[in-house]
Amino acid sequence: MRPMKLGGEYIIFGENALEYLTQLEGDKKRALIVLGGSSVQKSGYLTKIENYLTSADFTIDYFTGVEPDPSFNTVQKGAQKMVEFGPDWIIAVGGGSVMDAAKAMWIYYEHPQLKTLEEISPPNKIPALRKKAKMACIPTTSGTGSEVSRSVVITDTETHIKHGIGDMEMMPDIAILEPGITASVPPKFTAATGMDVLTHALEALVSKRANIVADTMAERAAIDVFTYLPAAYKEGNDLVAREKLLLASCLAGMAFTNVSLGIVHSIAHAVGGKFGVPHGLANAIILPYVIEFNSQDEKAAEIYRQFAEKVGHEDLAQAVRDLNEMLEIPAHLKAEIEKDEEFEAAIPELAELASKDGCTKTNPVIPDVDGFKELIATIYYGTKIGVQL
């Protein structure tokens, strides 16, 4: 028996969902807004957020500049800002990196005695939160599902290794899904973040912990990605497609945070940390190869077959490749990295990292380190699974 948690206190979605900010309550009414770049400000949505909060008598401060694949150094700086300002609401406005960073900052704000990334990394537990603040997440991309997940990925500042950390304490209290806020996301990032959603959903479907509740959410999310991602990619202002993808991201997030993921993420974490490949893009490239690899498991193969039928295809790996091609996503990692000798030299390290990643244990087929080496090389060069290099 494994208990499930489907989000925090509330999930608010649809046009004008941001208005819910006027209902936030707190003893001090101090809100720290965590941001990445300036896109939210340029789109006008930051002003809307500020106006709703000030109308509810909140004092506002900001932590800006969260980078893609946030570093522990950024987390430490944000936590210090929180200690100085003393918010009772932390409001993350951004993509997965911003939300992940804000959740990690929250831990160190609530527990300043913690000093290192290792102290919150597995097998250590996250200490109880919400003694100082609650958290609201406003995703600006349709990708990670971090607004309803227990997970964060933080990069070690010194080693550049990505640490995946999961604990239900980090489930945000409020998730606000405003479709218009995602309309300004450029096509390239729309594609990568949308494929991140698809990866979450398809990995959840074949997870060793899969169950009927998570399956229902994951399947709907994956179908909607196939249906609406091409439209959002071609026309960013298609708010119907944007809302469908934002909800798909949330559904996939609720699914995988309860049943976990698989080796697409294990490999993406390793490759992304070592070679700087953006997470969603790495997932998109790796996904069809892992579908083929996992299909040696009869149960997984049947799940893939049945799902492929629901989106009008016979071969799910090929369906993903066709979608990638439509979205102008490379067919192999070599096209993105272009460092053959350096990559080949790194394969043993990447294989070790992937084998130890927390996502690996719920994959339907678990390769040994040598198996990871072969698979990673295959994904880099774009050869068929099982072909010796």
UniProtKB/TrEMBL annotation:
Keyword Oxidoreductase: yes
CDD domains assigned: NADPH_BDH
MF (Gene Ontology): alcohol dehydrogenase (NAD+) activity; metal ion binding
Keyword Transport in annotation: no
Every Fe-containing alcohol dehydrogenase-like C-terminal domain range: 190-379
Record-linked InterPro entries: ADH_Fe/GldA, ADH_Fe_C, ADH_Fe_CS, Alcohol_dehydrogenase_Fe, NADPH_BDH
Name the UniProt record assigns to this protein: NADH-ubiquinone oxidoreductase subunit 6
Organism: Mesobacillus campisalis
